[in-house]
Design a protein that fits this description.
This protein is an alpha/beta fold and about 325 residues long. The chain has helices at about 20-25, 40-55, 110-115, 140-155, 160-170, 185-195, 200-205, 210-225, 240-245, 255-260, 295-300, 320-330; strands at about 15, 30-35, 60-65, 85, 95-100, 115-120, 130-135, 225-230, 235-240, 270-275, 280-290, 305, 310-315. The strands form two sheets. The chain has a seven-stranded parallel sheet, with helices on one face. A six-stranded mixed sheet has the order 8-9-10-11-13-12, sandwiched between helices. β8 and β9 form a beta hairpin. The longest helix is centred in the N-terminal third of the chain and has 17 residues, at about 40-55. It binds manganese (II) ion (MN). Manganese (II) ion binds near residues 1, 142 and 172.
Length: about 325
C-alpha cells in the first residue's frame, strides 16, 4: 500500500465532491499529476487513468514521481507513464493534482505553496493539504475515488482507462482479499470488466512478470525472517548488500511483506529495508497488522511515519538490532 513516511499537520483546504472535481477537470488546460515516492499499482494506475482522461478532455499534462529509482516494471504497460518526470518537482504553471498521497512532505512545502493543489486520495490520515480535497477513506483505492469522479463527470471510460483503474484496485486490495475489499470494490471491478478490461491479461502483466532480481531479493528477505513475541511479530531485514548482490531495485520489495504475513500466528509483520542516505544507514520499515488488533499506524507515528490501522510505515536512523528491539517493545505493549 505504499504508506511509508506519511504524516503532516492538518491544513484544511476545501472539501470537494466527485461532481465538483469532475467540473474542475473539464476546465483545466495544463496540469501536473504527482504521486508518491516508490509508487505502487494504485499510484501509477491513478496517474495513468487521470492522464488519459485529461488527454480526452484536451488538457495538456505531465506526470511526476519523486525520487530517481526506476518505476516498477510490471506497471510500465499503462499508458502515459513515459510522460513522468523524476527527481525534483518540475516547474509548471498549471494545477498540481496529487494522487494517492497521504502527505505533502515529499514534494516539499515550498513546491506546493506557489501552486493550486487538488488532492485526491483514500488514506484516512490525509490531512487535506490541498486547496481542494477529495479524500474518501471508504474507497479501497485511489482509482476507486477517480472512478467516482469520472462517472460523475460522464467521462467515457475506455478499455485503457478502465485497465488503469483496475490495476489500482486489484493491487491495493491484494487481489480482492484484504480487509479493505468492499462490495463497492467488487462492483467497480465488475463494471470495468463489462467495459472490456481483460482481468486475466492484467494478472499476467502484474503478477506473472516478476524479474529474477525481484525473486532473488524476496528469497533473501525470507531467509532473514525471525519470529518474536512467541510468533506474534515477524521481522525480515534487507540490507544494501542484498540489493547489490541480487541487482534488485527499491521497487522490488513490493509484495515481500505480504509473504511474511502469511505465516500462522503472526499479528504484526515488519520489513526493514536499509537505505544509505548521505553515507549513513537508515531503515524504511513497513508494518502490517494481520487481524487489525494492533494499530500499526499508531506505532509508525512514534517514529514520524503513518498509514492505516493495518498497513503503515516509518523511517528510522539506528542500528538495525536497536531498531528491531524498539519495534518489538512497542508491539509487545499492544498485544
Ligand atoms: Mn492507494
Amino acid at each position: 500500500m505504499g504508506v511509508d513516511d506519511r504524516r503532516g499537520s492538518v491544513v484544511g483546504g476545501t472539501v470537494a465532491t466527485p461532481e465538483e472535481v469532475a467540473a474542475r477537470l473539464k476546465d483545466e488546460r495544463k496540469v501536473l499529476i504527482a504521486v508518491h515516492e516508490n509508487p505502487d499499482g494504485d499510484a501509477l494506475g491513478s496517474l495513468s487513468a487521470l492522464g488519459q482522461v485529461f488527454d480526452d478532455l484536451g488538457c495538456s499534462w505531465k506526470g511526476y514521481v519523486p525520487g530517481r529509482a526506476p518505476l516498477p516494471s510490471e506497471y510500465l504497460f499503462l499508458p502515459g507513464l513515459d510522460r513522468v518526470a523524476r527527481g525534483e518537482l518540475p516547474p509548471s504553471p498549471g494545477t498540481l493534482y496529487t494522487l494517492d498521497c497521504a502527505s505533502v512532505e515529499r514534494f516539499g512545502p515550498e513546491g506546493l505553496q506557489s501552486r493550486f493543489c487538488v488532492n485526491i486520495d483514500h488514506h484516512p490520515d490525509n490531512p487535506h493539504f490541498g486547496d481542494v480535497n477529495l479524500v474518501d477513506p471508504t474507497a479501497s483505492s485511489t482509482t476507486q475515488v477517480l472512478y467516482d469522479v469520472f462517472r460523475a463527470g460522464g467521462f467515457p471510460i475506455t478499455k485503457a482507462i478502465g485497465t488503469a483503474l483496475y490495476v489500482g484496485i486489484v493491487t491495493d486490495t491484494g487481489r480482492f482479499q484484504y480487509s479493505n475489499t468492499t462490495a463497492a470494490a467488487h462492483r467497480m471491478a465488475a463494471d470495468l470488466q463489462d467495459m472490456g478490461v481483460d482481468v486475466h491479461d492484467v494478472y499476467r502483466r502484474v503478477y506473472e512478470s516478476t524479474p529474477v532480481s525481484k525473486m532473488m531479493l524476496k528469497i533473501r528477505a525470507f531467509e532473514t525472517m525471525r519470529f518474536l513475541l512467541d510468533g506474534a511479530l515477524a521481522v525480515a531485514v534487507l540490507r544494501v548488500q542484498d540489493f547489490e548482490d541480487t541487482a534488485a531495485q527499491e521497487s522490488h520489495t513490493e509484495g515481500i511483506i505480504d509473504g511474511i504475513r502469511t505465516v500462522a500466528g503472526i499479528r504484526v509483520a515488519a520489513l526493514f529495508r536499509e537505505k544509505l542516505v548521505g553515507g549513513a544507514s537508515e531503515f524504511r520499515v513497513s508494518l502490517r497488522s494481520t487481524d487489525g488488533s494492533v494499530d500499526v499506524s499508531e506505532v509508525a507515528h512514534i517514529w514520524g511515519g503513518g498509514g492505516h490501522v493495518r498497513a503503515a510505515g516509518y523511517t528510522i536512523r539506528a542500528d538495525v538490532e536497536e531498531a528491531v528491539a524498539a519495534l518489538k517493545k512497542e508491539i509487545e505493549t499492544r498485544l
